[in-house]
């Protein structure tokens, strides 16, 4: 994997973000013979998808789809990958994009690191594992996760006590405590913004009291609990390790609500809640599983059948809105629900021992003021032309996946392919014009 870059490197295209959208765009461009620089701010490529358990509606293993693409990108002769590197902004002069990068120190020399993990075993300091959404712990110096690419150790300077044990055991002398951040300016003709999404905070609705109970969890935490190689190896409650017997999904807990500034629908929550409910009923066959929803948006191919299958499996769907969640004794939670399904008793109080809040999808990156793209009122990169959904307001800058708005993996991959095609067409036309001119 080529990870060496200086400011004199001028790739044909630069892709921001190595989630499934960025990986697909980079591969499609590189397969056409174009030189691509793929920039990822996390220590590994793969984005959100590499952390998912299974994917709807096929229930295929998510990492079995993502890992081959990660590996193909890492081994492609036309793709250079920079991890731990943040795109800070873009300035465009004379139709050339100058992309500002901040390469953060890993305190490990990647040329020397052989991924043996001896440093990880020798380290005594642990902190909540970001890959496991804080449910497990990880050493201060570690390879980020089992199938991470690159398989190189990264040191977290915020928690490291610089005791020196990693440097003492490293067989190749790769530990460099004095590494400094490095700024780079890369010139390129085309950029694909594939900077993805984040979820809004679990505490965005104070009436759900997420700050008062560890048993009110995010859907990404549940993805990790359901993953076969997840933090506990099975589904357990974070507060006490108990096997949950009554699980609630609260839909639209961070979307479709003007009071929190997210008036739009996040599009994937209905389907991933149904998927997670199905997987839970396999993992915990005796558990009661209830989804509280306003309406179910099962819009894609095979999605309605997926929803009907979940109902047939015995998952409870309760139409209504959860007004408040209160922690009660034993770590359980009391939900105040207003339902439209019981005209005589619309206000109900129901008890569960684990609650999953469907947080809203928000943009993964706020472009700097100099970046010439326009964003929509919701902050996602705007693609103003209906007939060219991956073109932004700036010539030569394209957008793919959830950077342009909430969407699922199928739509993300289709859009990533389209963005790569538009970028290569743009490059071809620009270079032909120069030759003719
Ligand atoms: C709980 C949950 C379950 C889901 N389950 C399913 C499912 O079963 N099926 C399905 O179809 N969809 C599912 N989805 C949706 C799916 O996760 C997304 O469609 C998909 O991951 C989007 O990929 P992406 O590449 O657009 O974004 P991301 O995966 O977010 O990738 C973007 C990448 O860009 C990087 N980045 C951002 N800004 C910068 C910057 N400035 N510089 C450098 N790098 C940057 C980020 O670190 C990240 O790695 C689920 C979503 C959630 C929340």
CATH architecture label name of the largest domain? 3-Layer(bba) Sandwich
**Going by CATH, what is the homologous superfamily of the largest domain?**
FAD/NAD(P)-binding domain
| Count of DSSP-assigned helices | 8
Cofactors and ligands: flavin-adenine dinucleotide
CATH topology of the largest domain: FAD/NAD(P)-binding domain
Mean pLDDT: 96
Shape field: globular
Question: Can you tell me the residue ranges where pLDDT is under 50 for at least 5 consecutive residues?
Answer: none
Secondary structure tally: strands: 23
Domains (count): 3
Radius of gyration: 23 Å
Q: How far apart are the first and last residues' alpha carbons, in Å?
A: 37 Å
Question: Class by helix and strand content?
Answer: alpha/beta
Strand order of the largest sheet: 15-21-16-17-18-19-20
Beta-strand level of the residues, as a percent range? 15-25%
CATH class of the largest domain: Alpha Beta
* Main β sheet profile: 7 strands, mixed
Task: Work out the helicity level.
Answer: 10-25%
């Amino acid at each position: 994997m080529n990870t060496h870059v200086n400011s004199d490197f001028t790739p044909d295209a630069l892709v921001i973000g190595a989630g499934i959208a960025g990986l697909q765009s980079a591969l499609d461009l590189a397969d056409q013979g174009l030189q691509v620089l793929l920039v990822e701010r996390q220590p590994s490529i793969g984005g959100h998808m590499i952390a998912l358990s299974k994917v709807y509606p096929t229930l295929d293993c998510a990492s079995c789809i993502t890992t081959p693409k990660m590996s193909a990108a890492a081994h492609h002769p036309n793709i250079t990958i920079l991890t731990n590197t943040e795109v800070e902004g873009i300035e465009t002069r004379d139709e050339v994009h100058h992309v500002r990068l901040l390469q953060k120190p890993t305190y490990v020399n990647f040329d020397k690191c052989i991924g043996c993990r001896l440093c990880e075993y020798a380290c005594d300091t642990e902190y909540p594992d970001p890959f496991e959404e804080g449910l497990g712990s990880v050493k201060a110096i570690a390879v980020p996760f089992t199938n991470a690419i690159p398989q190189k150790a990264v040191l977290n300077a915020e928690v490291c006590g610089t005791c020196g044990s990693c440097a003492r055991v490293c067989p190749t002398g790769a530990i460099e405590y004095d590494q400094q951040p490095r700024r780079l300016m890369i010139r390129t003709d085309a950029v694909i913004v594939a900077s993805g999404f984040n979820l809004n905070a679990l505490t965005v609705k104070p009436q759900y009291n997420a700050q008062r109970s560890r048993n009110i969890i995010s859907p990404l935490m549940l993805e990790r609990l359901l993953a076969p190689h997840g933090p506990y190896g099975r589904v357990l409650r974070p507060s006490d390790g108990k096997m949950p017997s009554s699980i609630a999904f609260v839909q639209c807990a961070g979307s479709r609500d003007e009071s929190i500034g997210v008036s739009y629908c996040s599009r994937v929550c209905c389907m991933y809640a149904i998927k997670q409910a199905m997987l839970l009923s396999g993992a915990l066959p005796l558990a009661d599983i209830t989804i509280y929803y306003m309406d179910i948006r099962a819009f894609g191919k095979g999605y309605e059948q997926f929803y009907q299958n979940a109902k047939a499996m015995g998952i409870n769907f309760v139409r209504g809105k959860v007004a408040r969640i209160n922690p009660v004794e034993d770590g359980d939670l009391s939900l105040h629900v207003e339902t439209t399904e019981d005209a005589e008793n619309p206000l109900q109080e129901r008890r569960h021992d684990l609650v999953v809040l469907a947080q809203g999808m928000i943009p993964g990156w706020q472009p700097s003021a100099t970046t010439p793209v326009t964003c929509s009122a919701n902050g996602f990169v705007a693609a103003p032309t209906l007939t060219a959904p991956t073109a932004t307001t700036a010539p030569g800058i394209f957008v793919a996946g959830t950077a342009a708005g909430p969407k699922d993996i199928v739509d993300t991959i289709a859009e990533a392919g389209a963005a790569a095609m538009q970028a290569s067409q743009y490059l071809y036309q620009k270079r032909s014009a120069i030759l003719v001119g």
